[in-house]
Design a protein that fits this description.
With 167 residues, this protein is an alpha+beta fold. It has four helices and seven strands. β2 and β3 form a beta hairpin.
Amino acid sequence: MLFEIRPACIEDLEQIMAIKNAEILHGTANWSEDPQALPQYQDWFKQLQKNNYPLLVAQPVDSSVIAAYADYDVFSQIQGYRQTVEHSIFVHPDYNRQGLGQRLMLALIEHAKSQQIHVMVAAIDHVNTGSILLHKKLGFKQTGYMPQVGKKFGVWRDLVLMQLQLD
């Protein structure tokens, strides 16, 4: 299947919301516990645009379905971190194992380089070995391991921190 990678538009937010809220409710890639409503996603989208941060989608060329999305956002509100971002990639389960995570990650890296971002950070649940391997393949280095820093579904979760220096 052929996919187009493109910047998201406001009309994509309902599908993006469905992908992320499903992960919030059923997965461990995001440790939030409460799904968000469309107005929260609209505010998030506006904030990303204000900061010139990307929200990208992967879409089959013959469909209006959003198969995956990716973004990066502030790593910390402290000014000294302004050239460091944390990214996220979420793939709809129907489109796993089709290379969308890698394609979106490469697009995020190129965008970050064009914006003079110095470091991209990945915060990954330790059991998400697919994501860890993808990040290693793309040159990310593990820079931290934080045992039991989060809880999801009543289970303590370990966090793997990885980063890529862009310049």
